[in-house]
């Protein structure tokens, strides 16, 4: 019996993309509007959120396809907060419940980031700096910075197209 060996090096190529982390406290729809205004793009909310862990957490996602440059821009939330009720003191006469806010992150190693802007294209350094400067000029954005996607442990969570 002969043994056939398959080499899959070319099948699993790294997807080249630009990833920008944005730290701000504004709502997702407002950030999408401000990015559209300052970057000249047209992000729109997807009908379904990015869903993980058997529907226990969902992250909002906005996207835009630039047909001229053949790029896809995606704005995705990194933070999902849910309220969990936990029963309090069992020896009490009254049944008390405490509400606890549980926070889940899309990329746990980047907890300081509120939103990710993923662009399915690699830019030269000047174009990337120009995009970062335009994002930082938005008054309600605290900071924005470039992230190397290959250094992330949970980069598979960023595959949503």
Lay out the secondary structure:
Elements: E1 18-24, H1 28-39, E2 44-45, E3 50-52, E4 57-59, E5 61-66, E6 71-77, E7 79-87, E8 97-105, E9 115-119, H2 125-136, E10 141-147
Antiparallel strand pairs: 1-9, 1-10, 2-5, 3-4, 5-6, 6-9, 7-8
Major sheet: arrangement of strands: 2-5-6-9-1-10
Query: First CA to last CA: what distance?
Result: 41 Å
Question: How many β-strand runs?
Answer: 10
Looking at the overall shape, the CATH architecture of the domain at 18-45 and 59-79 and 106-158 is 2-Layer Sandwich
Q: Helix amount, in percent?
A: 10-25%
Structural class: alpha+beta
Low-pLDDT regions: none
- Please outline the major beta sheet: 6 strands, antiparallel
Oligomer state of the chains in this structure: single chain
Supply the CATH class of the domain at 18-45 and 59-79 and 106-158.
Alpha Beta
Whole-angstrom Rg: 20 Å
What is the number of helices? 2
Mean pLDDT score, rounded?
85
Strand content: 35-45%
CATH fold group of the domain at 18-45 and 59-79 and 106-158: Alpha-Beta Plaits
What is the ordering of alpha helices and beta strands?
EHEEEEEEEEHE
Overall geometry? globular
């Amino acid at each position: 019996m002969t043994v056939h060996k398959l080499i899959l090096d070319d099948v699993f190529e790294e997807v080249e993309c630009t990833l920008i982390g944005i730290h701000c406290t504004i709502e997702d729809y407002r950030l999408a509007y401000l990015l559209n205004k300052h970057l000249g793009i047209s992000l729109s909310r997807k009908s379904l959120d990015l869903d993980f862990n058997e529907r226990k957490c969902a992250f909002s996602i906005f996207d835009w396809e630039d047909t001229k440059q053949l790029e896809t821009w995606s704005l995705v939330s990194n933070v999902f907060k849910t309220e969990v009720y936990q029963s309090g003191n069992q020896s009490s006469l009254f049944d008390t419940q405490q509400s606890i806010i549980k926070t889940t992150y899309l990329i746990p190693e980047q907890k300081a980031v509120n939103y990710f802007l993923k662009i399915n294209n690699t830019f030269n350094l000047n174009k990337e700096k120009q995009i970062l400067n335009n994002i930082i000029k938005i008054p309600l954005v605290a900071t924005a910075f470039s992230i190397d996607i290959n250094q992330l442990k949970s980069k598979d969570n960023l595959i949503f197209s």
